[in-house]
Structures are given as structure tokens and as C-alpha cells.
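Archive maintenance. Older records in this collection stored only the sequence; we are now back-filling the structure field for every entry so that each record is complete. The fields below show one back-filled record exactly as it appears after the update. Entries are processed alphabetically, and Nitrate reductase delta subunit is next in the queue.

ARCHIVE ENTRY
Title: Nitrate reductase delta subunit
Organism field: Nocardiopsis sinuspersici
Length field: 259
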Amino acid sequence: MSTTTDGANEDAAGRSAPHGSVRGTAGWLEAGRDVRRAHRTAVTRQAASVLLGYPGQDFFESLPLVARAVAELPWGTVRAALHGFCEHAATTPEPELCEHHADVFGQRSLCLTRYGGTSPRDRVLSEVTRVYAEAGWAAPADEPPDHLRAVLEFAARTDARAGEALLLRLRPGLDLLGEALHDHGTPYARVVDAVRATLPERPDGERPARRFAVLHPSAPGPPAGAASPDGTRVPPPRSGTDTSARTDTGASGRLGDEP
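Back-filled structure field:
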């Protein structure tokens, strides 16, 4: 490759390459990286949305698919966190897993506006609902609009940019939830860690608050069939559950393929 007098690149056969071809290639490679990064983020958020759900029939039917999608993520902290929880869910007896979920989220809400903040909760909920409506997405009827699982599903499957903006808007609650889960020592903390890792880094010196300002700090876990503080219904666990092959990677389909 040589350079002609007018600055254009010239190959060994004397053919002139257009100006900016190197920049064009770099831009194409960067675009490819952006696409792969967006896919990884969507898979992470969709997987977390499933894994944070109550461990009932739908959860266990989805678990093999989630485990397969997580196994295709690049090695790193996000994959390790989600893989570790998939293994935990696959090997823990279902009644124990159900009881643990009710205990953890009966006292630590997945509704992110319940963790305090400077804006009235009703106003924030209205903003979130408006974002969903503008994107043509109907939030699950059994979950409030600020429920972390709903926000994650919206971001993963409907509008990545608007979904990330919502996660950033609700980030104080997300951070406080993550800290509360770590304080409790639950494996669910790692799932929330994976979600937090999909967001841009905080500005230098900015640290999340340590205050856990949930509005119902001492509420007991809800009994089977009762409504939890999240607004979701807690079904009774199935009896005689076999934990084998819960994460069989031979499950058909791929996480997030359908719109």
C-alpha cells in the first residue's frame, strides 16, 4: 500500500482506495462491537428478570433456557453471577427456594420507588407508565410499573434506550436493593449485581447511599396465596419436585428471540 500525491491510498496493483477506508473499517468494527454489547446487555437483563421471579412453574420451565443463554455470555463477573444463581436454583429443593424468595422479597421490595427518593412515588410511577405507553408496551398486570422485573423485561425486549433511561432514573432504588440483598446474604444479590453491571459507571466520587429506606422494613414474608408487598401473588410451592435436569442445556429456543 502506497500513497499517491493527492493523499489517496494505493494498493500494490496501483488501484486507488477511497479516502477514509481505514476509518470506515474501524467504524464497521465498532458498530459490530456495539451490536454484540447490546445483545449481551439484553440477555443479561432478560435473564435477571426471569431469575428474580417467584420460583413457581413458569420459573422452572424457563430456567433451562435462561441457563443456556447465560452460558453463551462472555466469561466475566456477569456470567459468573447469573450462572451461580442458575446452579443454586437448579439444586435447591423447590419448597426451600419458594420460602427463601418470600422471605427475601417480603421485606425487600422489588418495586424500586419504595426506597425513598426526592420525587413523589406516584409521580415517578406515572412517568414510568407513560414511557411504557409511548413504546406500545403493556406492563404485566400483576406487577407495578416500577417493579424491577417489569423494567428489565421492557429494556430487554421492547426499547433498550428507554429501558436503560428508566433503570438510570430508578438507580438509587436499585443500588439500595442490591446493598440490602448483600446485607441479607442471599444469592439474589448476585442477580441484582449483574443488572447493575449493565449500567454506565457512576461519575468519579459518586457512591450509592448506604441507607436502606424501604417503606416496609419489618414486614413478614407473605403466606402462600397472599399478595406480597411488591403487589404480586405468591402461589404455594408444588410438592415432590425433582431438582434434577432443571438447567438442562438441551432446552429448545433462545432467550429473547421473540419480540
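Update note: Residues 1-17, 209-241, 249-254 have pLDDT under 50 and may be disordered. The chain has one domain: 38-236.
Entry marked complete.
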